[in-house]
Design a protein that fits this description.
Bound molecules: ligand 8P5
Shape: globular
Number of strands: 13
Strand order of the largest sheet: 1-2-3-4-5-7-10-11
Largest sheet: 8 strands, parallel, barrel
Strand content: 5-15%
Radius of gyration: 21 Å
Distance between the termini: 11 Å
């Protein structure tokens, strides 16, 4: 019999989404195009030719969606702001209608007792800035800081939790290293430059927040713990390289004022020497760190795979999700405990955790049975509780995702929502996992 689970009082239970994945109407009311608008328009970039043109139509249905959050009893809702709704050209003229949308969303959340948690950047860079080099242009740190200041000024009285970036690793690895995500570049030199400019922009926004903000600001990173396929020195070294590239590349400069030494070893002349002043900017104190956890990787040495020279090893006795990720709840415990060990006691929020499974339409009308997602949720909750028991200061959990949505280049083919979306009719249907999550929130985990 599993021991009872007890989460701290006031533990912040919520859900997470992002603008381009759910809003639709990307050009409505004066908004400018983003790089995802462009990326989706190129045949072959996104499965089935899907795009965020309609998505979950949240731009028009946000009041209904907030009502669903309230029905689940959520305490918080993590969403991102579309930069090009606020600044259609990415800088300069402010589009008041864009601010109005998010003002209304924030007011609706607060009217329902739901804490807004705002991500400044969740991958949808204004296309006009990409035309000026985007994350490859060092000026973007100032462009981002100016954008952030507009939002802080407009919303900080009501928004208590701000995150600068969502997953700089994915932006870099997908958008600049492998070209699988917008803007679709494939260059290790550009990847290094984009990654560093992302972190400079993060620091510039934190600096502005310290001038004008009254609440809390942090960063959200995806952490995928790496485990060696064997205890051979080659595999142990490969594990360190993989961990440096995907995980420590973003937290070391924030907490230790430097990048992992493996980065220069792996990238060679594609990894410049960065100015020391940049690390003062990047390393400003944060009020919290958001951790997105989905899976782990077991890795071995693979000399032919430059620059990491790493190969993931598929696990035979494991469940894999529709996105090909191993269900490994112990990795969530390990991730949170390792953060404390490596970076100290900065408060943490699990800002994304969830799973994509095929949810068959069900015979009994109005119910969507998603047993695999439920099993995954239960196991991840126990893993989270274990980390708390080991003294990690985790203050909240946002399930990914509130709604089935646009899974980037995989289109609508992968469903992460605890609420099913019929993309033809836009009908929302609570899955069994939504009912479980509502019980978890209401009982603060005691129902598990
Ligand atoms: N290989 N591999 N291993 C797993 C690496 C995960 C990296 N991708 C994420 O974390 C993205 C995050 C994003 O914020 C959200 O916008 C996405 O919809 C979810 C689901 O994909 C997750």
């Amino acid at each position: 019999m599993n021991k009872a689970i007890q989460f701290p009082p006031n533990f912040l239970w919520g859900s997470a989404t992002s603008a381009y994945q759910i809003e639709g109407s990307p050009l409505a009311d004066g908004a400018g195009p983003s790089i995802w608008q462009r990326f989706c328009a190129v045949p072959g970039n996104v499965r089935d030719g899907d795009s965020g043109d309609v998505a979950c139509d949240h731009y028009n249905r946000y009041k209904d969606d907030v009502a669903l959050m309230a029905r689940l009893g959520l305490k918080a809702y993590r969403f991102s702001v579309s930069w090009s709704r606020i600044l259609p050209q990415g800088r300069g003229r402010i589009n008041q209608a864009g601010l109005d949308f998010y003002n209304n969303l924030i007011d609706e959340l607060l009217a329902n007792g739901i804490e807004p948690m705002v991500t400044l950047y969740h991958w949808d860079l204004p296309a006009a800035l990409d035309d000026r080099g985007g994350w490859l242009n060092p000026d973007i740190a100032d462009w981002f800081a100016d954008y952030a200041r507009i939002l802080f000024t407009a919303f900080d009285g009501r928004v208590k939790y701000w995150a600068t970036l969502n997953e700089p690793w994915v932006v870099t690895d997908g958008g600049y290293m492998h070209g699988t995500l917008a803007p679709g570049h494939r260059s290790p030199h550009e990847a290094a430059l984009a990654s560093h400019n992302l972190m400079r922009a993060h620091g510039s926004a934190v600096k502005v927040y310290r001038e004008v903000g009254k609440h809390q600001i942090g960063i959200v990173v995806n952490i995928e713990p790496k485990y060696p396929a064997s205890q051979s020195q080659e595999d142990l070294d490969a594990t360190r390289r993989a961990d440096a590239y995907m995980n420590r590349q973003y937290l070391d400069p924030v907490f230790h004022g430097r990048y992992p030494e493996e980065m220069k070893q792996m990238f060679g002349d594609a990894w410049p020497e960065w100015p020391a002043a940049d690390f003062s900017l990047i390393g400003q104190k944060l009020d919290f760190v958001g951790i997105n956890y989905y899976t782990r990787a077991v890795v071995r040495n693979e000399p032919t795979h430059w620059p990491l020279k790493v190969m993931p090893v598929r696990q035979t006795q494991a469940t894999y999700t529709e996105t090909g990720w191993e269900v490994y709840p112990q990795g969530l415990t390990d991730t949170l405990v390792n953060f404390k060990r490596l970076y100290g006691d900065t408060p943490l929020y699990v800002m994304e955790n969830g799973s994509a499974f095929y949810d068959p339409p069900n015979a009994d009308e109005g119910r969507i049975h998603d047993p695999l997602r439920i099993d995954c949720m239960r196991k991840n909750m126990r893993a989270l509780s274990d980390a708390l028991e080991q003294g990690v200061d985790v203050r909240g959990y946002m399930v990914w995702s509130l709604l089935d949505n646009l899974e980037w280049s995989l289109g609508f083919s992968k469903r992460f929502g605890i609420i099913h979306v019929n993309f033809e009719t836009q009908q929302r249907t609570l899955k069994d996992s939504a009912y479980l999550y509502a019980d978890i929130v209401a009982s603060n985990g005691a129902c598990l």
